[in-house]
Amino acid sequence: MIALGALHNWRRQDKAKREAEFLDHLIEAMHSYIVEMHSPIELLRMARIGMASHVATWEEGDSAEKVARGAIAYISKHGAEHGKRLAASLKIVEPSVVRLRSLASKGQVFKFRNYAHCQNAVSLLTWHVDRLWSFVTIIDTPTWNWENPEVRSLLDKVMKIEADDIRESIGQNDVAAIEWARLTYERIYG
Question: Can you give the residue ranges of every domain in the chain?
Answer without folding.
Answer: 47-189
